[in-house]
Design goal:
The protein is mainly alpha-helical.
């Protein structure tokens, strides 16, 4: 039972917008989060901001990769593979290169100043992105644009699998899987994520650098593929929507258990031991359950459009490309101010949001070349 390729999924548009807006709150909090390192850090940090960001980190990026996988269904059903590759290159590769050359360097510059580098100006720093090598030892990086880099690679390497799934045999396999999921739940997807999650015991740090990020790369690839598989079948979506309350209850229970262990300092010691494996399974399952819970509620309540969504759906990609650079630039100066953490966070959050939207509205949206560089369609 394929989805209607002409059906616009406004619920997924809403989720994409919401997820990237949450990403803005997430990154604005990073200078103040305890325990985690970041490009710039406030002198005082907060454990409560850590809890907020840790909760978001378990499902926010998986949700975005999942939605991207669903969107691939509609694209591949309407254009050829060659056109698809050209479209992905235009929408992903071009903004990535532009971002690495223009958008990200100010972030690296501010980070180097924060760590007491002696550059006299940004113009003295800029040539170093071509001569010092890749970040973190060098100054060439894609920083927060790792999502675009990973998505482009996933879009290309998954083509053979997606073509197989488009075949009659592939559709039969998806239909059978959907019927089993309708009967027994989305357990199989969770088990696959659990099996892949074991890679974290050998590669625990998500570097987002391809070469040493085998666990993170695999996890996000699976969410991307799951989005494609689930996106083509109405049975999956009916099951996800019908079971949204049950999934929310499960997500609540799992999240409560994780927080109980964290807040009572009884987290198992990291390593390949029974207690830690079981605890890590809670974390992996928490991410998956929150994703399908949000998909279910969005399918039920957010499948509509309005003027805000029309504006936000076009603006959210350029906003994503811009937002962290603005946060790091403003944050570099804000963390030097003598004020409380909450005041700094609120100021940084709302001013960086206003500046990012302002740059989009006045300098990106109206003009052909900036639209192209930010991966937008022609007007």
């Amino acid at each position: 039972m394929e989805t209607n390729i002409n059906e616009r999924r406004y619920d997924l548009d809403w989720l994409r917008v919401i997820a990237i807006l949450l990403l803005h709150f997430f990154h604005a909090a990073m200078p103040f989060v305890s325990e985690w390192d970041w490009h710039i850090k406030n002198k005082e940090t907060s454990n409560l901001f850590l809890e907020f960001n840790y909760f978001l980190s378990r499902w926010r990026m998986p949700l975005l990769f999942f939605i991207s996988g669903v969107g691939t269904v509609f694209v591949l059903n309407t254009i050829s593979v060659g056109q698809y590759i050209r479209q992905r290159s235009k929408r992903l590769l071009m903004p990535l290169i532009f971002g690495m050359l223009v958008i990200v360097p100010p972030q690296v510059y501010m980070e180097r100043l924060f760590k007491r580098a002696t550059y006299r100006s940004f113009f003295e720093f800029y040539p170093s992105i071509f001569s010092t090598g890749v970040y973190p030892s060098g100054n060439l990086s894609y920083h927060h644009l790792w999502f675009i880099a990973y998505l482009f690679v996933y879009s290309i390497i998954a083509i053979p699998l997606f073509l197989l799934l488009k075949s009659q045999r592939g559709k039969s396999v998806i239909d059978s899987t959907a019927l089993l999921s309708a009967k027994y739940g989305m357990v199989a997807f969770g088990l696959i994520l659990l099996a892949a999650g074991m890679l974290y015991f050998w590669f625990p740090n998500e570097s987002h650098a391809f070469v040493d990020d085998y666990a993170g790369f695999t996890k996000y690839l699976l969410y991307f593929v799951f989005g494609y598989v689930i996106g083509v079948n109405r049975i999956f979506w009916k099951h996800i929507e019908d079971n949204r309350r049950r999934n929310l209850k499960a997500a609540f229970i799992v999240t409560t258990l994780i927080n109980y262990f964290r807040w009572n300092n009884v987290e198992p010691e990291w390593g390949m031991n029974v207690a830690n494996v079981l605890y890590f399974c809670l974390i992996v399952i928490s991410g998956w359950i929150w994703v399908i819970t949000l998909l279910g509620y969005a399918k039920r309540y957010l499948n509509f459009s309005n003027n805000f969504l029309k504006f936000a759906n076009e603006a959210i990609y350029p906003f994503y490309i811009l937002h962290q650079t603005i946060i790091v630039i403003l944050g570099y100066y804000i963390i030097q101010v003598e004020d409380d953490i909450l005041s700094k966070y609120l100021f940084l959050t709302f001013v960086s949001f206003a500046v990012s939207i302002g740059i989009y509205v006045f300098f990106v949206r109206p003009y052909k070349i900036p639209r192209m560089l930010f991966g937008m369609k022609s007007r």
